[in-house]
């Protein structure tokens, strides 16, 4: 049985994960999230801890040695970054100290996973993590080291036999899927915008794993414009049944918030309120299916003032068993910090004014609804491998 309060993994140095001016992944989103967590006093509801950076032996649980060496070279001399390793590209520019800060972010997720597995704490949150596009041998999509995959690999090394990974970022969780493509010990579920319309162009229902891992990669690609009701219907139509069948010992979830209607890089139409509902669902699933063992990560999200801080503050609050009611006003002290750091006006409340509701899958299939078509395609692709009815 876990002891102590939930952990929030935080080191101010993670804001050094900075691809430079004009890049969408502005580290101010991390700083503003932590300042909002503090403005609500949530650091009193959980343990705020910094873990040590992931060392080479940990990084090599997922990443190839030649890639780690390439990151180190680019970190010391960004101008010499090797694009063959996905470094120095417009998406993932090289910057000085890149290896060190990427290792630090990975170390937070790995250390959090270890603590939860060992029973030191029940839940751990690393909203600087969730860098799910990094591949074993290359950087991709703003991601250098894949902290989610590294945390899962460490859990397997510690003896976990079944780890579930649920990814609700708007982009397909391709790097985590690739890392465990043929491993039946890891169930990866990704809910994302359709690959026809968004990077990385993968995450089709037919991508179900390989060999012994067939049926353990699950993809729900949703049409552009999908809003709260359809997205939550899809989440609940797929995830709970698979978790109940898989019986994970640990749940890792990635909470990229680029699904929001204000996000500049994608085309779904979720509210902060629907994102919060998904966080509550993952928390509930951790307790009902994984003995409460939960590592919650951040991910994408490029509306860096209006969306990211509110949504991830809800994530921290939910994991700390101290939820912030959606109608709560945003503290004035935080709004002053927003203006100081970003020269923008911040949002007034912790809600977008929505009350998400969705129709259960059991209530019937609508063949004319593209969301229902996506759900049906996913269930047909993977449910038979688990002995479940599609």
UniProtKB/TrEMBL annotation:
| Top-level division of the source organism's lineage | Bacteria
A single Gene Ontology molecular function, please? histone deacetylase activity
> Which of UniProt's keywords are assigned here?
Acetoin catabolism, Hydrolase
Location of the Histone deacetylase domain: 23-317
Q: Which family does it belong to?
A: Belongs to the histone deacetylase family.
Give yes or no: UniProt keyword Zinc-finger: no
| Organism, as annotated | Streptomyces aidingensis
Biological process GO annotation list?
acetoin catabolic process; epigenetic regulation of gene expression
Q: What is the lineage of its organism?
A: Bacteria, Bacillati, Actinomycetota, Actinomycetes, Kitasatosporales
Q: Pfam families attached here?
A: Hist_deacetyl
InterPro entries membership = AcuC, HDAC_I/II, HDACs, His_deacetylse_dom, His_deacetylse_dom_sf, Ureohydrolase_dom_sf
The answer on whether this UniProt entry bears the keyword Hydrolase reads yes
Pathway(s) annotated for this protein in UniProt: Ketone degradation; acetoin degradation
Query: What is the recorded name of this protein?
Result: Acetoin utilization protein AcuC
């Amino acid at each position: 049985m876990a002891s102590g309060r939930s952990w929030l993994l935080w080191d101010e140095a993670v804001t050094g994960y900075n691809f430079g001016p004009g890049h969408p992944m502005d580290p101010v989103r991390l700083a503003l999230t932590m300042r909002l967590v503090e403005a609500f006093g949530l650091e009193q509801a959980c343990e705020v801890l910094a873990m040590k950076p992931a060392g080479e032996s940990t990084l090599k649980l997922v990443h190839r040695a030649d890639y780690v060496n390439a990151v180190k070279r680019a970190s010391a001399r960004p101008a010499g970054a090797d694009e063959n390793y996905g470094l120095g590209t417009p998406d993932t520019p090289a910057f000085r100290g890149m290896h060190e800060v990427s290792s630090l972010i990975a170390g937070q997720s790995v250390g959090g996973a270890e603590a939860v597995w060992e029973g030191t704490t029940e839940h751990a949150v690393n909203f600087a993590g969730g860098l799910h596009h990094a591949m074993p041998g290359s950087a991709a999509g703003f991601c250098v080291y894949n902290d989610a995959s590294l945390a899962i690999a460490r859990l397997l090394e510690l003896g976990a036999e079944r780890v579930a990974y649920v990814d609700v970022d708007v982009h397909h969780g391709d790097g985590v899927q690739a890392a465990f493509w043929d491993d039946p010990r890891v169930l990866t579920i990704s809910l994302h915008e359709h690959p026809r319309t968004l990077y990385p162009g993968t995450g089709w229902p037919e991508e179900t794993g390989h060999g012994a891992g067939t049926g353990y990669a699950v993809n729900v690609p949703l049409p552009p414009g999908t809003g709260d009701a359809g997205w939550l219907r899809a989440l609940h139509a797929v995830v709970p049944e698979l978790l109940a069948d898989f019986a994970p010992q640990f749940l890792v979830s990635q909470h990229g918030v680029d699904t929001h209607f204000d996000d500049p890089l994608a085309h779904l139409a979720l509210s902060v309120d629907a994102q919060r509902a998904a966080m509550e669902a993952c928390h509930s699933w951790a307790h009902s299916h994984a003995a409460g063992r939960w590592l919650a990560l951040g991910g994408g999200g490029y509306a860096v003032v209006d969306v990211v801080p509110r949504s991830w503050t809800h994530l921290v609050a939910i994991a700390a068993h101290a939820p912030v009611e959606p109608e709560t006003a945003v503290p004035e002290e935080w709004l002053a910090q927003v203006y100081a750091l970003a020269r923008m006006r911040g949002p007034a409340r912790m809600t977008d004014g929505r009350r998400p509701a969705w129709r259960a899958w059991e209530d019937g299939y609508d063949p004319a609804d593209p969301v229902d078509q996506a759900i049906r395609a996913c269930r047909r692709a993977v449910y038979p491998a688990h002995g479940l009815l599609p």
